[in-house]
Amino acid sequence: MYVIPFRAFLFALNGNSIDNLRKKFVTSGGILYKEGVLPQDDLQTIRTEVDALSSSFSPERSSVASLRTGAVLTSESSTFRIVSDKNGAFHRIVNRIMKSFDDDKEYELSEVVPLEVRRYGSVGSGMAWHKDDVLFDPCQIEIVFTLDNNSNCRTMWKENLPKNQESDDEQTKIYEVETEPNSAIFLQAGGVEHCVSSLKVGERTILKFAFVRRGSQVREDAKAVLGQFMSKNSLG
């Protein structure tokens, strides 16, 4: 197993077309890191709204995250409007990277999975290695949007390499990146294993939400997980 700083691969993304982003998403096993996602005015609108809510953040209960706080934003929030905009950046990128896999049904912001703001702000906050639960059929696209980040936290994920002829052992490559403000990770649920390293200095604030294909069905084995979402308090 070896670690590759993801900065070394950004040349394959910057300046290239969305179709090349789709190629990267496919070849990586269903994960894409993209910088400069939102226009600056949208970014500032979200920052202002999140700053106003920050005093209401509460500790998050999670089996994989530690010492993380956050809140849920309602459909009346400006952030929800920006994220769900069918002419906006998230809608455009998700539908382009998924275009070759599905029929003409578009992907759109899930009305079931909440739009959450999360903050890594305490020393030791992080997230253990895991795969996101598959909640829908077909599976959802999870999005982690970095709003601000002056921390040492590194987002890492594993990609499996083809087995070589001399050994049956599976080689694993780990990518890592300190996510930039106004960047997003697009992740196919149930696919790539990922984590966030433990915070030592600074803060990292993100939005977490999911896009689903129109008409997708909630999986029977996911209803308990979705029930936890529905029980959370909403702000916004």
Characterization of the model:
The chain has 236 residues and is of the alpha+beta class. Helix content is 20%, strand content 33%. It contains five helices and 17 strands. Strands 2, 3, 5, 6, 7, 10, 13, 15 and 17 form a nine-stranded mixed sheet that branches. A six-stranded mixed sheet has the order 1-12-11-14-8-4, with no helix packed on it. The protein is globular and about 50 Å long. The protein starts with a strand and ends with a strand. Mean pLDDT is 86; it is low at 1-16 and 231-236.
Brief characterization of the structure:
This protein has helices at residues 18-27, 40-53, 78-84, 89-97, 223-230, and strands spanning 2-5, 31-34, 58-59, 65-66, 68-73, 107-109, 115-120, 126-130, 136-137, 141-149, 155-160, 172-177, 183-188, 194-196, 204-213, 217-218, 234-235.
SSE order in H/E notation?
Answer: EHEHEEEHHEEEEEEEEEEEHE
Helix content: 10-25%
Gyration radius from CA atoms, angstroms: 17 Å
Distance between the termini: 43 Å
Number of helices: 5
Overall mean pLDDT: 86
Shape summary: globular
Contiguous runs where pLDDT drops below 50 for at least 5 residues = 1-16, 231-236
SSE class: alpha+beta
The beta-strand count equals 17
> Approximately how much beta-strand content do the residues carry?
25-35%
Biggest sheet, in brief?
Answer: 9 strands, mixed
Oligomer: single chain
